[in-house]
Amino acid sequence: MKIMIKTYCFIIFLITSLFSFGQKIFFQKNINSTAQNILEVQKLNISGDSLILESNQLKIIEVDILNDEYLQTIRVDSLEAKIGLNHLPYGNYVIQTKVKNHNIVMYLEKIKDLDSDISYVDIQLKEKMRHISKLPIEVDGKYFSFYRNTLENQIEEKKMYWVVSETNSSFSSTKTMGLKYPEEIIDLIVKVKLEERTEVGKNNKLLIFEVYDTAEFMSRQLRNRKYYEKGNSTFFNVIPFYSSEDVMANTSNNNLTYNKF
How far apart are CA 39 and CA 53, in angstroms? Predict the structure, then answer.
């Protein structure tokens, strides 16, 4: 058992190390004098995987990280914020920080580190992780392989999906929105089903919508962050492909009439 634990710890450490060295993040702060007076600290941490923001007097209300395919809102309500960036897909991002009546805009670019000498190892790890992800997940003696197989049969490979994920705890609340590929949403659904069984993750939420026209949908979504809540649209299916709230409600009523994943 000790050897097994040590092995798992080593794998986690190795994957984390590879991930950190396999990416580069470039940050451009807002050099406007007013912005610098409000946000005295705008920088990456030493390891370059987190954004550090600090205000001297005014509370940072929230931080938006967005581009044409991604939108994440982090509720802060504090003078300081440390936001992890490892989860961001590669690309260019606008960072908009709301401080009272001010919106301070900064920029960030995340690229793959082509200088790192780990491409072969990285590919091997991805193949192993892809294989592991197909294995059934056991919680309280029940397997989730049935849910995964059911989802794989229902999801269309050529479609894109708009995912709204909320992480809620007594300490903070984070909402992440973005386009996802079919293979990504399977893991998200299994993950949220596992989290509902825990005290920490029971209030987390997941909404998934099928998108018909990604360009038109994103054009409207970026203009109106609540566009996905519309009652009718020709660019996406307004009826969620998956809603964790509906599943929870149906489960509590012992009437599983919703998507039975």
Answer: 7
